[in-house]
Each structure stands twice: as C-alpha cells, then as structure tokens.
Protein 1
Amino acid sequence: MTATDTVPVPSFDDADETGRKLVIICSKGSLDMAYPGLVLANAALGEGIETHIFFTFWGFEIINTKTMGDLKFVAMGNPATHMPNAVMGLPGMTALSTKMMRKQIADLDIPEIPEFLDLIHASGGHLWACRMSADMMKLTEDDLYEGVEGIISATDFMELSEGAQTLFI
Amino acid sequence: MPVATMLGREIHVDEEGFLTDPSEWDEELAKQLATNIGLELTDRHFEAIRFAREDQAAQGETPTLRRMQTVGGFPTKELFGLFPKKPAKKLSYVAGLQKPVGCV
C-alpha cells in the first residue's frame, strides 16, 4: 500500500475537541421565521456541533402539536414581499401567501416543520421549551412535540447555554 | 487540483481530499479512504455508500442526509452511528463523492 502521508485528508475535527456548542432561541411563530432556526440547527448537527433549541413565546407554535403543522406566513406589513398592504390585507391573503411559501419550500425538498423536528431530534439535537411561555399559554409537555426534552426555566437556560454561541431568532 | 496516490493509483482530489472523479473510486479505495479518517467499514456502511453513489449518478449531486433517509431508507440516527459526528461529509468522502451542496 502506498504511503498516504502525501494524500490530502479532510479535517473532520470533532466539535468535542473544539468545544463548539450552539444554542438557538426560536421566539417567532410564523412559517417564515420557523425555518431559519431549524435549518441552522440541522446544519450544526451535521457538523457534529452540540446543538440546543430553546422555544419561547410565539416559538411555541413550532412545537405545539396542535399548531406545528399549520404555521402561517403573513405578507401584510412585510415590505420585502413588495406587495401593497391594501391587497395583502384582503380576506384569504394569508392563506394564499402561506400556500405559496409552502410550495416554494416543498419544491426545494425542505421538510415540513414536524418532519424537520424529527430530523433534528434524530440527529441528536436537544429541544427545550420555556417555562414562562408554557405557564402563560397553559401548556404542558403533553401538548408539545414528543422530542422536547423538558420545559425549563430561564435559570436552567442560563446553565445549558454556558459557553455556547447563541442565536436569537 | 492535487493528485493523490492511493493503492498505487493516481486519484484526483480537491484541496480537502474529496475525490473529484467518482469513476476513480472502487470499494477497495473506499476502505483506504475510511482508514484515512479512522473509520472501519462494515457491510451496512457499504450499503449506504452504494446507495449514495447510485443516487449521485442518477441525480448529479450527492444526497443529503434527509434524502438518504427519505429515498434511501437509511435512518438519520443510524447514519450518525455509522459515520460519527459529520455523517454527510464522511459518507461523501468515503464514497468518493463531493460534499452535499443543499442546506438541508
């Protein structure tokens, strides 16, 4: 066998060695704001990075089993859609823009939210729910996606996020 | 592009070491590539590798982990077990393919 010391070998340094850890706070409950956190979490897990997602306030929509499959995209008041508010405020427009966005996402072969959570959970991602939000919305673990590991307090969150890169979305 | 010599053959690779020409790959080379990154290949590894290569040949791009699961039937959790920490990259490397380009 030929010596391989001259062969370039990709550096698959374990994140354990670099100590990299990522915490993503998902605080929004609209379809368009659910995806950034999930896409980044999935990418981080694929890189071997310890990844936690903390769902708070409207972010509960993403893990509430009653709503997770039915998030909406509201175009009204969003200048990036370049559509007049007078039109986007008409009845049925949210359903229409949500349908369009879902199709765009599906065309890219990106999973819907529940399946995306399955993927993240299977990849070893940690999912947490915010205690205060749960109390406000009168939700318990039984109402949440099964992969959520627990409903935790702000103090617990401080402990788990120690030394982590943190993203607030 | 560097040319690496493995198993007495010239193999075209990119700067990182991923093969640039899938046709230069065979299963003997896969074992060598696996050794390079500290993996030992089992039959199950080879099943995943063969699917990834067939899918790449058909689609023109390396399958993502999600595609490995939905189309290939290889559960994500299992792939993390077979190719620890960075399954998509390690699988592509050993299979003689480029890294997947998709975000998901």
Protein 2
Amino acid sequence: MRALVWHGANDIRCDTVPDPQIEHPRDAIVKVTTCAICGSDLHLHDHFMPGMEKGDIVGHEFMGEVMEVGAEAKGALKVGERVVVPFTIFCGECDQCKRGNYSVCERSNRNKALADKVFGHTTAGLFGYTHLTGGYAGGQAEYVRVPFADHTHIKVPNGLTDEQVLFLGDIFPTGWQAAAQCDIQPTDTVAIWGCGPVGQMTIRSAVLLGAKQVVAIDRVAERLSMAKAGGAITINFEEESVVERLNELTGGKGPEKCIDAVGMEAHATATLDSMMDRAKQALMLESDRAHVLREMMYVCRPAGTLSIPGVYGGLVDKIPFGMSMNKGLTWRMGQTHVNRWTDDLLHRIQDGQIDPSFVITHTEPLENGPEMYKTFRDKRDGCIKVVLKP
Amino acid sequence: MALYDRSSPADSMARGLGWFSIGLGAAELVAGRSLARWMGMEDKSALIRAYGLREITAGVGLLALGDPKPWIWGRVAGDAVDIATLASAVGDDNPRAGNARIALGAVMAATALDLVCAAKLHQEETAAWSPPPDYGDRSGFARPVDAMRGTASDAPIGDDMRTPKILQFQPAGQSQASSQPSRAF
C-alpha cells in the first residue's frame, strides 16, 4: 500500500510499504477514505518530537471503512461500517479509561516501559506518533491497523460526509476539551493563542459553550479572518500589543480563561524570548518554545485558568512559575480524551449546530502529502487545513 | 506578515551561508590570535574574536530563526565592517599585506554571495505574494454567531473538567469565603 513515511527532519515521503495485518484479536483493519495533516504532525516533520524512527508511518487524523475485524472485536465492529478513528488508542477497561481519561489509558501504549521511564507513568498509545506513545503506524496511508478496535472507533451515521465527521478524531474534540476544561461562564472572556485548526475549533467551542467574549491571537491574515468569522475579536500580534489589547478588552483585569493552541513551536522571531528559545532549541539546550505560556501567565486574570491543548514535547525554559503561583492560576492540559466528547459532538454535527468542514482549505491526493506538509508548515497558499485522499 | 519558504532554493543558499557563518565564526573565536598574526594585525585579535561571535549569531539566526532575510542583511552589514577593518591592513606598511589582501578578497566574494542570496530571497517573496484569501464566510455555524452563543451551555462536561466551586469567580459580595468566619493567618 501507499503511505506517508517519516525519514528524518523535513523528509516525509510517499512510499510503498507492506499492508497491515491483524496482530491481535481486538484489532481491526480500516481502509482509509480520508485523512488529514494535523499541526502536531508538523512537530514530527520538523523533528522537534523525540522518539521517531526512520520508516514510521505518520498521521493520526483519519477515517474509513472497516475491512477486517479480529475475533474479539466482532461484537463491536462489523466489516463495511464507516468509522472515524480517534488518535488516542484506548482499551476501555483500565482505571483511567473507566474515568473517561482515555488519553492516559494504562494499557494501550506498547512501549509502556519506555514511557514509564520518560514520563514517570505511561500515557495512551497514539497513531503515527513518537515511539514514546507506542510507535503505532499512522493513518496517512491506504490501510491502518487499529488496536483495541472494539473501543477505539467512532461509528459514522448515514448521511454525513467524510469532511463533516473526520475532525471528530482529533481537532474538534481537542478544541472542545480545551474550552470545556476552562469551565466557561457567561461572563468570561476567553483568549485563544493560535488560529490554526485547533484554535479555530476552540473558538467555535468557546462560543457554543457561552463565553461572553472570545479573543483570538495570531499573525496570519487568513487565519484571523476565519477566526473573526467564528465570532472572535482578533489580535494580530505583529501589529499590536497582545497584553495591552487584552487588558483593554477586559477593563484592565485580563481574561479569565486563556488557551494555548500553539504549543512547542511558537513563532520564533516575534519576540526576544522566542528568539532566545529558538536559539536554545537549535543548540539542544531546550526542546520547546514557550512564549505563549509566558504571555498567558502574565496576562491572565488572577485566579483564572490556563488551558493547554497545544502540544509540548519536553523541556521548557524560563517559565515564570512564581507569577503563576502568586496569581493562583489553574492549569489544565493534556492530550484529548477524544471519545469522552464525541457522542455529544456528533450529535451537534447531526443537529446542524456546527459543520467542522469549514476549516478545510486544501484537499489533495495522498501522493501530494509530502509537499502539502511544507505548504501547511510555511502557511503558503492560504493553507489552514489539509485533507488527503488515499 | 513576512513570507518565507523554508524549502526554496534561496532558503537553501541562506542555510548554506548560515553554516559557513558558524564555521568562520568558530575559527575566528578559537584562532583569533593566529588569524590576526597571519594578516599582520596582531593588535586586533580581540576584535577578530568579537567578529567571530557576530558570525555565529548570524549563523544561528539563518539556520534557526525563521525568515532569513534580516540575518542575510545582517551578514552584509558585517561584511562591510570586515572590509573596513581589512582595508586598514592592506597598505605597504604592513609586512603581511599580501595575506590581508587575500582575506579582503575572500570577504568581498562572501559579500557578493550574501547580496545574491538577499536578492533571491526578496525575489521569491515578491513572486510568492498574493492577497491573503478571505475566509470571512467560514463560520462553521448554521446561524449567526450571536444566535449560536451558549447553544451548548448544557453540554455534558464532567465535574473533573469543572473549576471547583470554591475557586470560581463569584459576583462581588457572594464569594464562598464571605459566608465563612474570617480568620487571620
């Protein structure tokens, strides 16, 4: 089959690789009909995420048709069913899964020993990501093996297109959880850094959850125009001071809720601290650029909440933790517990409240994937979200 | 917004100059005194080491800090300083003026490369520029934003995702703490 394969920094290729096989009775094989490039795939492309190996198949946003089902998954899945596959693989039976904390499933990471050493305790297995999270083959491919398939799926009802439901596998519930864990109140101002695909979903989620005011921060004109369409007041950080504008919008008190939809690759040249971060990153003195975290901690209203859906991979430097402690800020973060939210979100899509396909700007065949990674990363051609068709 | 394409030919050239900068800078830093002696500029070894630091900074900027144009122009400015410094050493009063002339020639060649790279980067930016698409009609909502605000305020969100009641923002005079007897600490 054809698949997008990681060969090193800035080197993803469309290769011919062996078809996946059922390896465990709880597995299923899914024929991918639509997949997407996620912002966190760029961390792999740019090689800022440790634990990648040459030959890894990438991609964790995908959906398709069930082709084969292992003996122990047959009660939950049938051949021919359409499914979206969540990027977090989960067993549905461990203590964490029983609490709905699927992204920290205790059993689905097959490299648990490694993850235990690096993270202290393992997190869930993820598709198409680092070997710290299991090194499972990803979904930017014609076929995928889905482990724990009896739980790791979202069935798609008839009448919905791939584009309407694809993002249930990651960015829609990720944006939703980012907003939900802020416990948004009708009096809240919610500030969201980053208007990429997750930021866009977070904006819509904050509006649906009833925020009084949503403010979106970015520098890319087309992303800001899409944010505005979703109901956000926009701040272009290249044109005005984020801190001053947020204070102005909140009567000098700062937003109650701040959301980092940027993560470890904050824009490198906008501020002195970002430039220092980038230089340190290049010299391997730190792994993540934390400008957004610093800015959120500074501008957030005391006793407010910081929510972090943006991906961080390792070590950050110069975090003003004393500021956060003295302001009594609450931090909420983590990979998304996708299936905790998807029944409700699917219902909202069916109900017509939201159509997540608004974010798609490019649809291309899988073979064009390597080039589309670069287009997405460099924000060329108005690119916000790339969908690939195997 | 500055446009730059990190896979273009001009960007590759800029990266090459970035590595060159780091190599030259390291050499100037480590062997500043020997270089100065070779060019008959023994009194300027500290200055050459400082130039080495400048080169390394420019190299890191070119390789790691996104848009390479400011760093290339930084290199051009640095080249001008190098040329001015070397020009003072090519007179007949310097017994090693020949070596200084060789260095001057090398710097001028590097300057030419820097200028070519800068021009190519600007050409690419001009060619790539087009008005940003307007996604102002992509709300994703079925109805106007204000009609959708709060539609999901009854969404099933577990208590573990909620702010504990004691920590929630309360209307003035109604805080959880105000109902408790005050306590000095």
Protein 3
Amino acid sequence: MTTRIVDLAASSVRELNQALHTDKGHMHWQVLNPAGRHSIAAGLDAPATVEIDGHVGYYCAGMNKHASVIVRGNAGVGLAENMMSGRVHVTGDASQAAGATAHGGLLLVDGNASARCGISMKGVDIVVKGSIGHMSAFMAQAGTLTVLGDAGESLGDSIYEAKLFVRGSVASLGADCVEKDMRDEHKALLFGKLTAAGLAGAVDVGDFRRYGSARTLYHFHVDNVGAY
Amino acid sequence: MCGIVGLFLKDKALEPRLGELLAQMLEVMSDRGPDSAGFAVYGAGRPGFVKISLRAPAGIDAETLAATLRGAAGGEVELTVRDSHIIVEVPAAAEASVRAALAANHPEIAVVGSGERMEIYKEVGLPKAVAERFGLSAMTGSHGIGHTRMATESAVTTNGAHPFSTGQDQCLVHNGSLSNHNDMRRVLAKEGIRFETDNDSEVAAGYLTSRLAKGEPLGDALKSALGDLDGFYTFVVGTESGFGVLRDPIACKPAVMAETEHYVAFGSEYRALAGLPGIETARVFEPEPATVYFWERAA
C-alpha cells in the first residue's frame, strides 16, 4: 500500500480535498503542516485513511462518509460535523460543536471536547476520553455520547432519543434531560461503543451513568390542547 | 466576526521579536476582520514619563505641534511620528496640561491612549497594510494585543477600530457584541470615565478601567465583568504588567491559547498561533467559558 503525502505548506486545502475525491488509487494519505487550516479532509466519500500531522482548524472531516481520519493534534470548531459514516479520531482536544448533526460513524476524542459536543446529533457514536463542555447533546436525536470525564452545564437540553453515558460528574442537566437506569442492555450497548473506540476493558461500564430524554417536551400533551 | 490576538512574553530573549510575531499573528486573522486593524505594544518606558498615542490627520506639522506641546508641558516633549500616529512622550506630571493643550489647539487630533509603556496604533484597512504602515514588525516589548475588525455594532472608522484604551497602560480588544453597553456607558460616564465613541467594546474597556481604578486587580476586574457585561465577548486585555483573557459564559466567540515556558499566546483561531516559535510542543488549549485567565510580569 503506498501512501500519498500532501504537504499543506505547498498545496492548498482545496487541492488536497479535490485529490481525496479524484485519486481513488491511494487508500492511505498523510497530510503535513495543517497549521490550523479549515475544512481539511471535508466531504470524503471513500474508505481511505487520512492521517493529519498537527492541529487542524474548523470543520475538519465534515460530512465524512466511509473514511478514517486521524488528527494528531487538536481540532477546531465543527470537527466531523454531519459525518455519515466512517471514523474520526483526534489525539488532542476538540473545540466546540464536535460531531454536530452527525448521522453515523464513530468520533473519538482522546482529550476534551468543549461546548456543544454532539449538538443535534442524529445517530453518530461519540466517545470523549476527557470531559465535554456546556450544552452538549443539545437537541440530540439519536446515537450515543460517551464521556469518560465530566460534562458541563445543561447536558442534553431538549434531547430526543440519543443515549448519553457519563462516567464523571454532570454540572447540570438541560430541560427534559433526566438520569435513567443503567440496565444490562445499556451496559452491553456501552461496552460495544467502548470496544469500537479501543477502550474495551480500559474502563468499567459500571462506572457510567446514563442520561436521556424524559419525553415531556416533544410529545404532544392533551393538557396543552388549548394553546393551539 | 473579528479576529483577536495577544502575545505575552515570559522570556526576555524574545522581546526584540514581539512586533514581528504579533504582526504575523495579526495578518493571519485578516479573514476574520478585513475592515480595520489595530494593536497595542508594551515596549520600553521611562519612569516619570508618559507616552500619549495620538492620531493626527495627514499633513499635520509635527514641528509646530511639538512647539505647542512643549509650551504646555513646560519642558521636555519627544515626538515620534509613525504614519498617521504620533507618540508624544512627556513628563507624567505634564500629561493633563498637554492633553488640555491638544484639546484646545488641535481638535483634529484624537488621543488614542496613554501610559508609561503602552503605544496604540489603529487604522482602517487590511491588517497587513495597517501593520506595515506603523512598522509593527520592528517594534519590541514584553507583550502586545491586536485586533482585526469586521464591524457590526458601529461604523467602519478608525475610531471604531480596536484596541480601546480608557486608562493608563490599559487596553482591550473584543470579539463579539455587547447588549447592555448603552446603559453601562451612562453608568460609567457618571463615574467620570470618558468615552470617545458609540462603540460597545470601548464600554468594556471603560468598565475595566473603572474597576482597576477602584483598586481591583485585573483578575478580579475580569471576574466582575462576568456579572455586569451582557452579550457575546471574548476579551483580551493588556495592562502595564499583565495580560488577561475572558470569554462569556456561553462562549459564543472562538478562542485558543498556547503556552510554553517562553510565552503565552492567544488567537481567535489556532491559525494565528501556527507560526510562533516552538508551537509544535506548546500546550494548546481552549480557554474555558466564564473563566478568568491572566498572567502578570514579575516586577
């Protein structure tokens, strides 16, 4: 397997992203000198592996489909936003709105993710080894968010059907988000997600608490009929 | 949008490069703010003297101005002209009379700020052009802050450009928009804080000046701001000996910091920090919302 190396000190992000679309002969890519540039490896649509050596800017690996993107550094706002499938792994921290609106795939953050992690997530599995910031999983619709550290304020505000697992403390829960029983099926689900993230056996599923929707906000309630 | 940057040097060996590093950080943030740009540099100061940063219209006769100000100061006055700005160094005791002489004889000249070490420069135009006009890359000092503006709350004018200063050696750059600035401006004006513009960010600077004047340390003044200033903000603040960062509790505006044993750097985006020496091994982190960060120089 040959690796195609793209040095962003010499090529533009547009050239890189274009090549990732047109050059299907290379399944392994290495990106040098990202220097915080935006939209690196966005819109991938093939099962290639893209390794990025350094910190990236906004929207890295956005809309990802099938590809595996590894960032050796920190990521800016909107990492893996609207990911459809594949895998995105950041060895450092992720900024705000990591995994926003993502439909599928796995997003793994070795460090911390800041505010609004998993906002409006629609089926993605997010695993954060550190902690997450405030308003995470806001209006989360489906998927799982697993946090080995702590969660900031208003976790899961206005949440629909996503499942949230937090090992540490939760500063506060948002509207209509409640703690739920951690039954065996949830432990099995969580174990599966941890395994996919390479964390099987590294942490005990019994240490996590589960949070989800109380379902009082998004179901029509007959008592409110007069309001319509 | 707007871009803000800040660089606080811990290592004196880097001080000759302060301007060069700050200029490069500012230029990278052009995408976030192409309207206008400005910066404050804390360079060498002479004890007992004050540097007043002035902005003068084109064609001003520096020699005549110097003569007027010497008369007002009753002694030594040193002028350094950099494009549209003039730095006037006067004995601290003469500052009030020099300012009065300026107001009386030169209403066309704006006072941008003053302090023992702080110099402020700002202009309309692309950040790279603004930095070059004033020769930022050749400036030296211990710390500096900068701003690239995309105007939202007030007009694209030089007066609306950042940094804003309302107190000695104090200045602020702001990314965001404040919603209670009119009310706060009235409150502060009653306390005697003077405002030159309708700009929301100047109110934030005035607010901090007011708190510092009451004896609060920079860290406490920033903490008070969390309760009193409403809106979106990421602030980077400079004082004679310190450098502070504060984000609003919602963290609407981006911020990233890097720290090594040689410096602390702030950027709206990591791109602004990517060219700093030793950035590869720096601790790069996002400052937490509603959390005060500040660093002071050892006296």
